[in-house]
Specification:
alpha+beta, 9 strands, 44% strand, globular
Length: 172
């Protein structure tokens, strides 16, 4: 079990899928991508889906997700995504009253029971008092994390002013 905090975008794409009986059917599928902007989310979903879909597809909708953290399961049977609502319980020191704040997570699991187990596994390592108030299966097909990395420098990758100086020396 691992978790990742990021800015997540829910992307809906539409395309013609070849069904088991060989017929073409228009489908709409939802994916989640890690991105910093709507533009980056669109570029990421297009890049990721172009390797899975032959033919044309359309990005129908992109919206910022209500959750900031995703819990990924390492279990091979985990093939569903659940949106969970947790209530963090704090006590107001002045009034002594209990205060609950809602926090949303996207959780990977094979079943509802497995998703709850995964939430408890991750949250069990924290000191936060919480209550799981909702866990609902989503239509999310997959989650694509940001492919980080530093830009690789090319062999002759030098600033333009240095290239100009090299040419100037050759001319003299």
């Amino acid at each position: 079990m691992r978790s990742r905090t990021a800015i997540w975008f829910e992307c809906k794409i539409g395309y013609e899928k070849t069904m088991d009986d060989g017929l073409q059917k228009k489908v709409s599928e939802q994916y989640v991508v890690d991105a910093l902007s709507f533009t980056e989310a669109e570029a990421t979903i297009i890049e990721e889906m172009s390797s899975y879909i032959s033919g044309e597809f359309e990005v129908k909708d992109i919206k910022k997700a209500t959750y900031k953290e995703v819990f990924f399961s390492d279990a091979p049977a985990a093939d569903k995504w659940y949106k969970s609502k947790l209530q963090f319980i704090t006590i107001d020191e002045k009034s002594g009253k209990e205060k609950r704040s809602n926090v949303y997570y996207l959780v990977h699991g094979s079943s509802l029971k497995d998703a709850v187990k995964n939430i408890e596994e991750v949250m069990g390592t924290t000191m936060i008092d919480y209550v799981i108030s909702a866990v609902n299966e989503t239509q999310v097909m997959d989650v694509f994390e940001h492919k980080g990395g530093v830009k690789k420098t090319e062999k002759n990758d030098v600033p333009e002013y240095e290239q100009y100086e090299d040419v100037k020396e050759v001319e003299q």
